[in-house]
């Protein structure tokens, strides 16, 4: 397969996904992974990703120069191109203005990477530094306003300043395919059906006749993990579903129907709503609420898992982006929100871990789910934060507010499905403000809460725009919420992008 060395670009997971979509195995490793470890994997090619730093900086992220002498093809993208230039004796300078967004690439001398690409094409740039002089043995293959494609074909080293992996680079797929197949001669060895078969065999082998427990949340990852493991070991899998009381309306009932009845999973449902609500009494700070909910979840799960006798394994729906993020060597970025993933459990628990999805990207997890027969609407659910409605009820949480919000949210989500809009937005929900305003209903004056409808479109949840939902649709949900949900007399629509706003309100 192809190894991608991660220098911190927001696009490096995308490189991995693109290559897997071509049917070729790819792996993202931290840039400082020792060469020996890279070689153990017998890569057919190595990609040096983009990254935020400058090769001329004092503590720049570097690799061992020997990487270029392994006779394994190398593709340097953005920072990867500057790094290659820098390490092999060329010069990188601070750009005059930098380039962000679309640019015209003009090919001056084609090579195996650019084979079949038009002489002029649109590419996506995002850089400040630029290559000034080439290392010995390299030629210029393409220009934008700056040197944008270089190579040393006899050493199979190829570099581009732009990002071939993003869809804005019109002929990027062709370039990626040229690298993966024509230059690296990678075998097509990545197929999800094979993955399912081998993983099931591995689970059987590893687990033997022992018991496995799993925290089922109803979200995509834990559900797919549960169904996959159940396929391997049947009722040796015991799921625990904790109802925090902060879930979407009827979530527990639906999980029991979808997975308990339909897939025959053994699920122990724990109604812990009172515990959570009482712990949340008097707490209104968002981070404090996250902490309280996270700790309480761990406490409940810990108690319940110990009641299950003889369980040896703890299964989790960890997926590849979680793995990449946890191994990443990026500098400490400031904590905006502590994304306390409830479902992430304490390490001191006395179980062996079983993580059958840890090699898969999200879209691959969905495909596996569909292969296993989980219905489309379950496999394509929007993400739901661990602290749940606890961070969508601004300020202090109580039972009444939870009920009000559940009702309103259920109307909104139901209408999105009914109008074929659910799959067109990335995450949608309702927020309940602790603000009351005056309204009129019949002849009565009302004084009730304000609900905010939020819907975001995004690919990576790092940046997002608000969904351009049709006015008529917004009118329908506003009317329905105000008429049907006692406690809300005003609905607002959130038209903030991220940044500077975030997707959630807390
Ligand atoms: P923000 O609000 O930071 O959200 O733009 C980005 C994504 O993260 C989710 N989110 C959370 N998920 N625990 C979670 O498991 C949390 O505390 C949490 N806070 C935000 C949010 O729903 C969105 O998908």
Automatic annotation (TrEMBL):
Positions annotated to bind ATP: 217-223
Alphabetical list of CDD domains matching this protein: GATase1_GMP_Synthase (cd01742), GMP_synthase_C (cd01997)
Keywords of this entry: ATP-binding, Glutamine amidotransferase, GMP biosynthesis, Ligase, Nucleotide-binding, Purine biosynthesis
Matches recorded under PROSITE patterns: GATASE_TYPE_1 (PS51273), GMPS_ATP_PPASE (PS51553)
Pathway assigned in UniProt: Purine metabolism; GMP biosynthesis; GMP from XMP (L-Gln route): step 1/1
Domain GMPS ATP-PPase: 190-381
Active site feature: 78 (nucleophile), 163, 165
Molecular functions per Gene Ontology: GMP synthase (glutamine-hydrolyzing) activity
Annotated catalysed reactions: XMP + L-glutamine + ATP + H2O = GMP + L-glutamate + AMP + diphosphate + 2 H(+)
EC number: 6.3.5.2
Enzyme class: ligase
NCBIfam families: guaA_Cterm (TIGR00884), guaA_Nterm (TIGR00888), PRK00074.1 (NF000848)
Role played: Catalyzes the synthesis of GMP from XMP.
Subunit structure: Homodimer.
Name of the featured protein: GMP synthase [glutamine-hydrolyzing]
């Amino acid at each position: 397969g192809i190894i991608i060395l991660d220098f911190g670009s927001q696009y490096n997971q995308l490189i991995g996904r693109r290559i897997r979509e071509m049917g070729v195995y790819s792996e993202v490793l931290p840039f400082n992974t020792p060469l020996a470890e890279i070689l153990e994997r017998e890569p057919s090619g190595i990609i040096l990703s983009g990254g935020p730093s400058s090769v001329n900086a004092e503590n720049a992220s570097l690799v061992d120069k020997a990487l270029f002498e392994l006779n394994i093809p190398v593709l340097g993208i953005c920072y990867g191109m500057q790094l290659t230039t820098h390490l092999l004796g060329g010069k990188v300078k601070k750009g005059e203005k930098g380039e962000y967004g679309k640019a015209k690439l003009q090919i001056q001398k084609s090579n195996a990477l650019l084979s079949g690409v038009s002489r002029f094409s649109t590419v996506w740039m995002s850089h400040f530094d630029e290559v000034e002089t080439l290392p010995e043995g390299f030629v210029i293959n393409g220009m934008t306003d700056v040197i944008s494609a270089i190579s040393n074909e006899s050493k199979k080293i190829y570099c581009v300043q732009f990002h071939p992996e993003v869809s804005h680079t019109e002929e990027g797929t062709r370039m990626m395919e040229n690298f993966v197949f024509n230059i690296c001669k990678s075998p097509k060895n990545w197929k999800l059906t094979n993955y399912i078969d081998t993983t099931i065999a591995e689970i059987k082998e590893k687990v033997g006749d022992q018991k496995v427990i799993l925290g089922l949340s109803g979200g995509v990852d834990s559900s797919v993990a549960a169904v996959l493991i159940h396929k391997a070991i049947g009722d040796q899998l015991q799921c625990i579903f904790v109802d925090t009381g902060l879930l979407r309306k009827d979530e527990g009932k639906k999980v029991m129907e979808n997975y308990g009845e339909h897939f025959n999973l053994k699920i122990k449902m724990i109604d812990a709503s009172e515990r959570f609500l009482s712990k949340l009494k008097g707490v209104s700070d968002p981070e404090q609420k996250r902490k309280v909910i996270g700790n309480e979840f761990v406490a409940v799960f810990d108690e319940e898992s110990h009641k299950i006798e003889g369980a040896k394994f703890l299964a989790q729906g960890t997926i590849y982006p979680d793995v990449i993020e946890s191994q990443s060597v990026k500098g400490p970025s400031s904590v905006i929100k502590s994304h306390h993933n409830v479902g992430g459990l304490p390490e001191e628990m006395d179980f062996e871990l079983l993580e059958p999805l840890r090699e898969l990207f999200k879209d691959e997890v969905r495909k596996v789910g569909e292969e296993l027969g989980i219905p489309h609407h379950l496999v394509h659910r929007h993400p739901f934060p661990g602290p749940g409605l606890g961070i969508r009820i601004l300020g202090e949480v109580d039972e009444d507010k939870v009920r009000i919000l559940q009702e309103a949210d259920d109307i909104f989500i139901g209408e999105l499905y009914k109008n074929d809009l659910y799959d067109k937005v990335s995450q949608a929900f309702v927020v309940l403000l602790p603000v009351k305003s005056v309204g009129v209903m019949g002849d009565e004056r009302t004084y009730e809460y304000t609900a905010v409808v939020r819907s975001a479109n995004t690919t990576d949840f790092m940046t997002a725009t608000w969904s351009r939902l049709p006015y008529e649709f917004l009118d329908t949900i506003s009317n329905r919420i105000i008429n049907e949900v006692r406690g809300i007399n005003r609905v607002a629509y959130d038209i903030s992008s991220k940044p500077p706003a975030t997707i959630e309100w807390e």
